[in-house]
Amino acid sequence: MTKSELIAELAAANPHLLGRDVELIVQTIFDEISTALSRGDRVELRGFGAFIVKKRDARTGRNPRTGDTVSVEEKTVPFFKAGKELRERVNQRASRQRRAAPSVAAKT
Predict the structure, then answer these.
(1) How many Å apart are CA 68 and CA 61, to the nearest integer?
(2) Are 24 and 14 contacting, i.e. CB atoms less than 8 angstroms apart?
(3) How many Cα atoms within 13 Å fall on the side-chain side of residue 9?
(4) Rounded distance, CA 86 to CA 71, Å?
(5) Domain spanning 42-108: which CATH class is it, in words?
(6) Mean pLDDT in residue range 9-18
(7) Closest Cα to residue 6, out of 37, 34, 19?
(8) Is the pLDDT of residue 89 over 80?
(9) DSSP label at residue 102
(10) I need a labelling partner for 69 at 20 to 30 A (CA). Which of 42, 50, 54, 83 fits?
Protein backbone atom coordinates (compact mmCIF):
# COMPACT_ATOMS: atom_id res chain seq x y z
CA MET A 1 0.00 0.00 0.00
CA THR A 2 1.34 3.40 -0.91
CA LYS A 3 0.89 6.58 1.08
CA SER A 4 -1.70 7.89 -1.39
CA GLU A 5 -3.63 4.59 -1.18
CA LEU A 6 -3.58 4.83 2.62
CA ILE A 7 -4.93 8.38 2.45
CA ALA A 8 -7.66 7.33 0.00
CA GLU A 9 -8.76 4.40 2.21
CA LEU A 10 -8.82 6.53 5.35
CA ALA A 11 -10.79 9.24 3.54
CA ALA A 12 -13.30 6.65 2.30
CA ALA A 13 -13.66 5.17 5.80
CA ASN A 14 -14.16 8.65 7.31
CA PRO A 15 -16.46 10.57 4.95
CA HIS A 16 -16.93 13.30 7.57
CA LEU A 17 -13.28 14.35 7.01
CA LEU A 18 -12.06 16.24 3.97
CA GLY A 19 -9.45 14.51 1.83
CA ARG A 20 -6.90 17.27 2.45
CA ASP A 21 -7.44 16.90 6.23
CA VAL A 22 -6.79 13.15 6.04
CA GLU A 23 -3.64 13.85 4.00
CA LEU A 24 -2.49 16.37 6.62
CA ILE A 25 -3.12 13.88 9.45
CA VAL A 26 -1.13 11.12 7.74
CA GLN A 27 1.72 13.49 6.86
CA THR A 28 1.83 14.83 10.43
CA ILE A 29 2.07 11.30 11.86
CA PHE A 30 4.91 10.39 9.48
CA ASP A 31 6.70 13.68 10.23
CA GLU A 32 6.47 13.12 13.98
CA ILE A 33 7.82 9.58 13.69
CA SER A 34 10.69 10.82 11.50
CA THR A 35 11.48 13.68 13.88
CA ALA A 36 11.53 11.38 16.90
CA LEU A 37 13.81 8.89 15.15
CA SER A 38 16.17 11.64 14.03
CA ARG A 39 16.51 12.62 17.71
CA GLY A 40 17.31 8.99 18.54
CA ASP A 41 13.99 8.41 20.31
CA ARG A 42 11.93 5.23 20.16
CA VAL A 43 8.39 5.37 18.75
CA GLU A 44 6.07 2.63 20.01
CA LEU A 45 2.57 2.05 18.67
CA ARG A 46 1.00 -0.54 20.97
CA GLY A 47 -0.26 -3.58 19.09
CA PHE A 48 1.47 -2.46 15.89
CA GLY A 49 5.17 -2.23 16.64
CA ALA A 50 8.11 -0.04 17.49
CA PHE A 51 10.40 2.13 15.41
CA ILE A 52 13.90 2.43 16.82
CA VAL A 53 17.29 3.63 15.66
CA LYS A 54 20.12 1.10 15.55
CA LYS A 55 23.82 1.77 15.27
CA ARG A 56 25.78 -0.15 12.65
CA ASP A 57 29.51 -0.34 13.27
CA ALA A 58 32.08 0.54 10.63
CA ARG A 59 33.11 -2.46 8.52
CA THR A 60 34.90 -3.52 5.40
CA GLY A 61 32.59 -4.29 2.51
CA ARG A 62 32.86 -5.17 -1.16
CA ASN A 63 31.83 -3.26 -4.23
CA PRO A 64 29.46 -5.75 -5.93
CA ARG A 65 30.32 -4.48 -9.40
CA THR A 66 34.11 -4.61 -9.16
CA GLY A 67 34.73 -6.84 -6.16
CA ASP A 68 37.06 -4.23 -4.62
CA THR A 69 37.07 -3.86 -0.85
CA VAL A 70 35.67 -0.60 0.48
CA SER A 71 35.38 0.78 3.98
CA VAL A 72 31.84 1.41 5.15
CA GLU A 73 31.53 4.07 7.84
CA GLU A 74 29.57 3.72 11.06
CA LYS A 75 25.96 4.76 10.63
CA THR A 76 22.58 4.77 12.30
CA VAL A 77 19.58 3.24 10.59
CA PRO A 78 15.86 3.16 11.36
CA PHE A 79 14.51 -0.27 12.35
CA PHE A 80 10.96 -1.53 12.77
CA LYS A 81 10.04 -4.36 15.12
CA ALA A 82 6.51 -5.68 14.69
CA GLY A 83 4.36 -5.94 17.80
CA LYS A 84 2.78 -9.16 19.01
CA GLU A 85 -0.72 -8.36 17.71
CA LEU A 86 0.58 -7.45 14.24
CA ARG A 87 2.72 -10.61 14.04
CA GLU A 88 -0.25 -12.76 15.05
CA ARG A 89 -2.56 -11.14 12.49
CA VAL A 90 -0.02 -11.56 9.70
CA ASN A 91 0.67 -15.18 10.67
CA GLN A 92 -3.04 -16.02 10.89
CA ARG A 93 -3.60 -14.61 7.42
CA ALA A 94 -0.60 -16.45 6.00
CA SER A 95 -1.72 -19.77 7.52
CA ARG A 96 -5.27 -19.28 6.15
CA GLN A 97 -3.83 -18.65 2.69
CA ARG A 98 -1.66 -21.77 2.89
CA ARG A 99 -4.67 -23.87 3.89
CA ALA A 100 -6.83 -22.38 1.12
CA ALA A 101 -4.22 -22.88 -1.63
CA PRO A 102 -4.43 -26.29 -3.33
CA SER A 103 -1.40 -28.44 -2.67
CA VAL A 104 0.91 -29.07 -5.64
CA ALA A 105 1.59 -32.59 -4.34
CA ALA A 106 -2.15 -33.35 -4.31
CA LYS A 107 -2.43 -32.62 -8.05
CA THR A 108 0.21 -35.16 -9.07
Answers:
(1) 8
(2) no
(3) 6
(4) 37
(5) few secondary structures
(6) 95
(7) 19
(8) yes
(9) P
(10) 54
